[in-house]
Design goal:
The chain is of the alpha+beta class and about 600 residues long. Helix content is about 35%, strand content about 20%. The protein has a seven-stranded antiparallel β-sheet with strand order 22-19-17-18-16-15-23, with helices on both faces. A five-stranded antiparallel β-sheet has the order 5-6-7-8-9, with helices on one face. A four-stranded antiparallel β-sheet has the order 1-2-3-4.
Length: about 600
């Protein structure tokens, strides 16, 4: 699964069809490594997203807007100065040099933009999107290839190959001997020459994608499949006829690429996305595999990358919270273990009380100086018992010594018992926050978790790290509709759980929660009607799915879920938000699922 040169070519074709001659009306930088350009094209507004994120580098058209920082970053300000109001005159993939105009299949998309400079003269700037994994970058150039600025600065301390800093000359790094497929596809002799060195141990599959720019392993495997060649075959053993067959398929594919003929698609294995491409992947068809074709490469990229990109960014932004949670949970777990051992040690307190009482009863038999008392234990059916004595103490003093031990352990048990309850509640609370963290989909969700942790004393209130955003929306619970048409709400965090329980839910609505595990509160809005069986099963499956029990369960394991009418819930005085108790409930064993209608 890669944003390869062919996907970039399909993107360039789509952008040329929709953006050429469009004017840039707005430049925003919603993330530290992402741009969002708003353009006016044929009286329509179009948004272009460019991401240099190491995990999800991409260029695509998007429909929705996104929130931006109140204060624009420096790179965003440079773009507004140099290309704001500019007009896109060309979009292309370069080969090895932007200035010579030769097009290749590099994972680089260049936007040539006409713009009035400070003197009022028309000049051309180049916005370069390099989509190369961890080396991805977005760079603004003058017409003489001098770097104006970049979204990521790269000094000689970071890279010995190329500096990306203002004032440096821009160049595309050496492709390490790789060939331009758009040139090779026109010359069969050159194609065969690439495979003439007969280096041992390398398969034809690996040799193909290592020799051509923009050809990914997926495309390499597809070409070999079409040519009928075993991909594991050492390329030194490939016959001339097989190379001719491979060249034919390679040439046909590259002709389609040059002519802009693409078939954007996503390959599904059941409901799971396994691959995407700009060409039809015949090698992945058949069996449980299903290929869905789309009209737009941007739509494919949105579908494939949006969830992954959002998850990556949320995970990155929540690293500090995860670190704090991990440390607090480990510390609380160690404290709980220590307290449980201390609590277990107090189990022998009653033995000391019995010793004291028996010494008081039979101590008159002692003459002094004995090291033990052997007597009948009337607490254990009159069985004989040996009680150790301090021979330097009188019977009364030995009795008092045992009663003192008993009272000390009794006080310890009461104190440790209270601490145990507090520690268990804290661990449960931390687990509920960790569960909420797994449901975060936006910075608003994260901010609510930071606020809860600050109010609970886990982090300082001024270290919540809330980032200012324009018109930041409040996080909302998940909303599903059951097969019976009943609204089901799922809390993403403890604040939402509290709101669902005591503001959204009516007295006769039904409440669901995984038994004895932190997790989301689920409300089925049945009102005064009887709870339908399907709605009950679906709401319980959601409660199981959005719980810590599901994270640690086997794939096919069933989870116990409690459900009661909302009127049975009671707040826990002094507890964290979203913590409730109930004394009567129903229970159901259910397989976790989240596959009902989602709104």
């Amino acid at each position: 699964m890669a944003y390869d040169g062919i996907v970039a070519a399909a993107t360039v074709k789509e952008l040329n069809d929709k953006l050429l001659s469009g004017s840039i009306t707005k430049v925003a930088q919603p993330e530290k490594d992402e741009l969002l350009l708003t353009l006016k094209c044929n009286r329509a507004q179009v948004r272009l997203a460019i991401s240099a994120n190491a995990s999800t580098p991409m260029v695509y058209l998007r429909e929705d807007n996104t929130l931006s920082p109140v204060t624009a970053p420096n790179f965003c300000m440079s773009l507004r100065k140099h290309i704001g109001g500019g007009r896109i005159t060309r979009i292309f993939q370069p080969s090895s040099d932007i200035s010579d105009g030769t097009e290749g299949l590099e994972r680089i998309i260049v936007f040539a933009i006409e713009h009035l400079d400070e003197m009022g003269d028309m000049s051309t700037k180049y916005l370069v999107a390099e989509l190369m994994g961890k080396y991805s970058n977005i760079i603004l150039l003058k017409d003489d290839m001098t770097i104006i600025d970049s979204i990521k600065h790269v000094s000689h301390m970071t890279s010995s190959v190329r500096e990306v800093l203002p004032g440096r000359m821009y160049f595309i790094p050496d492709a390490m001997g790789k060939h331009n497929p758009k040139t090779v596809c026109k010359d069969e002799a050159l194609f065969k020459e690439i495979f003439s060195d007969k280096k041992a141990g390398i398969s034809i599959y690996k040799k193909l994608y290592m020799s051509m720019t923009g050809i990914s392993p997926v495309v390499s495997g597809e070409l070999l499949y079409r040519a009928g060649i075993d991909s594991d075959k050492p390329y030194g053993e490939v016959t001339d006829d097989e190379l001719s067959s491979l060249f034919k398929e390679f040439s046909l594919l590259m002709t389609d690429v040059i002519n802009g003929q693409f078939t954007p698609n996503i390959v599904y294995d059941g409901d799971r996305i396994t691959e995407f491409s700009a060409i039809r992947l015949k090698s992945l068809e058949g069996g449980d595999m299903k290929t869905v074709f789309y009209d737009s490469m941007s739509e494919v990229i949105r579908l494939f990358y949006s969830a992954k990109d959002k998850a990556n960014r949320i995970r990155s932004k929540s690293e500090d919270i995860r670190g704090v949670l991990k440390n607090l949970t480990e510390r609380a777990a160690k404290k709980l273990d220590l307290l449980e051992r201390q609590y277990a040690d107090t189990d022998k307190r009653d033995k000391f009380r019995v010793y004291g009482e028996l010494i008081n009863t039979y101590g008159y038999e002692l003459k002094g100086g004995e090291s033990e008392l052997v007597c009948s234990n009337y607490y254990d059916e009159g069985k004989m018992i040996k009680i150790p004595l301090d021979k330097d103490l009188t019977a009364l003093e030995n009795s008092k010594k045992y009663f003192d031990k008993y009272n000390k352990l009794k006080r310890t048990r009461e104190a440790v018992g209270a601490q145990l309850e507090e520690c268990r509640a804290s661990l449960y609370h931390l687990g509920s926050i960790a569960s909420s963290l797994s449901l975060c989909e936006s910075e608003a969700d994260l901010n609510e978790i930071r606020r809860e942790m600050a109010e609970s004393g886990y982090i300082s209130k001024h270290s919540t790290g809330k980032r200012e955003r324009k018109e930041e929306k409040k996080s909302k619970p998940l909303h599903f509709v059951s097969s019976d048409g009943i609204d089901i709400f799922v809390g993403r965090n403890n604040y939402q759980n509290e709101e669902l329980d005591f503001k959204v839910a009516d007295a006769n609505d039904w409440w669901f929660h995984a038994k004895n595990f932190p997790g989301s509160h689920v409300i089925a809005k049945t009102g005064n009607i009887k709870l339908p069986d399907n709605t009950c099963l679906e709401a319980a499956a959601l409660a199981a799915y959005y719980s810590r029990a599901y994270n640690g369960a086997d794939a096919n394991a069933k989870i116990e879920v409690d459900y009661v009418r909302k009127k049975e819930l009671k707040r826990v005085p002094g507890a964290a938000p979203g913590f409730v108790i109930y004394h009567t409930n129903y229970s159901i064993m259910i397989e976790p699922k989240a596959e009902i209608s989602y709104n």
